């Protein structure tokens, strides 16, 4: 899927996220979790159980997961517009978001949570 983990999209608190494709065409983001602690595994299971049940337009979809105990990965649909953090901080260039837009994003995020 990730072509041997060729392209890293970023890194969060739980692992590195790689770009990949499903069936060679559907773009994906594959989060490979750091070595699993019991705390990490609990978080992984909670994320899988919640996101496989809950679908909302403001939430990224979980497409699948890998649970081999020592190798854990979460597979999400790929968000092509980048990180919200970068949009809010103006790092992506382009126009600065207005306060009205920021407020709408906050409300939309709250609706998805
Ligand atoms: N579904 C996705 N589509 C595209 N890029 C993604 C996706 N998920 C994560 N990324 C990229 O990988 C980076 C790390 O994401 P990740 O969710 O691990 O960290 P985070 O947003 O800091 O959250 P957390 O606090 O859960 O670790 C993001 O900043 C983003 O650039």
UniProtKB/TrEMBL annotation:
SUPFAM superfamilies: Protein kinase-like (PK-like). Residues 3-113 form the Protein kinase domain. The keyword Mitochondrion does not apply. It comes from the Eukaryota. Pfam families: PK_Tyr_Ser-Thr (PF07714). Keywords: ATP-binding, Nucleotide-binding. ATP binds at residue 31. InterPro entries: Kinase-like_dom_sf, Prot_kinase_dom, Protein_kinase_ATP_BS, Ser-Thr/Tyr_kinase_cat_dom. Transmembrane segments: none annotated. PANTHER family: LEUCINE-RICH REPEAT PROTEIN KINASE FAMILY PROTEIN, OS07G0107800 PROTEIN-RELATED. This is Protein kinase domain-containing protein. It comes from Brassica cretica (Mustard).
